[in-house]
Amino acid sequence: MDYTRLNPVIRSVALYDRGIKYTEPVAAYDCRIIYMFSGELQITPEGGKKMRLAPGNFLFVPAGLPFTLRSNRFRAVVIQCDITDGRPEPTDAAIPAVRVADFSAEECHACDMLPFDRPLFVEDMADRRDTFTEMYHIFTSGEGSYRAEISAMLKLVLLAAAETADEHALPARMVRALDSYIRDNCAEDISNTEIGAMFGYHPFYVSRMLKDRKGVTLHQYIVSYRLRLAANMLRETEKTINEISELCGFSDPSYFTKAFKAVYGATPKAFRDRAREEFI
Questions:
Q1: What is the 3-state secondary structure (H, E, C) of the chain?
Q2: Among 200-214, 229-243, 245-259, where is mean pLDDT lowest?
Q3: Tens-place pLDDT, residues 21-76
């Protein structure tokens, strides 16, 4: 998915600590993001099932979607925002939700960007608690470029939430862990069995998941990472090509040269020479 347009415009970051009851459907002109700290909140979006939000839960509600709310008491950070800056005249002021009967579709800040065109629920975002707490404190301080700072923080949260909605996306944590493991063990003989054990899966499952979602097998992913590392070392160090081959996990220099040329269209030596000429 293309998230280049994702650039949240922050209007309000509020801490709710009370009960609430919207038995009559309401709709908001901008998006609502709810992160639960404690209690329980029931929300029923129009045409959808009732959702029960508990601590650590995250919910994104798109602009213009009617919903009802009910809670005896809950504590949550609620953010009002547009998820892009594409409005002709964006306003920083908070915009309250209104009854559906009073809602004007022409004034709605709706966005057709997937998956933010529908409710987005993430059950486990307990690790983002401090992030939402910090966003609230930054907003209430009103210091410096506080809205831009919150926008950058929220974008990362929204990207993580979108990842959970994309069944074809490889979990970012797994990618980071895989890259970190390959980087730390690049010079060693990395086996599929070791990778599988690290994630607690059969190595065939990890490889199949990479193939389905990235288009490469586990072996191809490891080789690709090693070649990227080698390219950086050719550009940035004075190590010999044989040294780089060994440091990047290629025990056979001739195989390294062949694999490198297949990807970069040049031998390691020619690649290094060209990089030096371009630098000069």
A1: CCCCCCCCEEEEEEEEEEEEEEEEEEECCCEEEEEEEEECEEEEECCCCCEEECCCCEEEECCCCCEEEEEEEEEEEEEEEECCCCCCCCCCCCCCCEEHHHCCHHHCCCCCCCCCCCCEEECCCHHHHHHHHHHHHHHHHCCCCHHHHHHHHHHHHHHHHHHHHCCCCCCHHHHHHHHHHHHHCCCCCCCHHHHHHHHCCCHHHHHHHHHHHHCCCHHHHHHHHHHHHHHHHHHHCCCCHHHHHHHCCCCCHHHHHHHHHHHHCCCHHHHHHHHHHHHC
A2: 200-214
A3: 878 899 999 999 999 999 999 999 888 888 999 999 999 999 999 999 899 999 99
Give the integer Cα–Cα distance in Å for 176 and 244.
23
Locate 209 and state its tokens.
Answer: 């998941």
Residue 24, token pair as written in the block: 């009559």
Which sign, positive or negative, has the C-alpha torsion 70, 73, 76, 79? positive
Cα distances from 244 to residues 13, 120, 247, in angstroms, run: 50, 45, 5
Dihedrals φ, ψ of 276, to 5°?
-65, -40
CB 53 within 8 A of CB 32: no
Count CB neighbours of 152 within 10 A: 12
Residue whose entry in the numeric block shows the structure tokens 């029931």? 42
Q: If phi over 0 gives left and psi between -120 and 50 gives alpha, with beta otherwise, what is residue 139? A: alpha
- Amino acid present at 194: E
pLDDT in tens, 99-157: 888 998 888 888 888 888 889 999 888 889 999 999 999 999 999 999 999 999 999 99
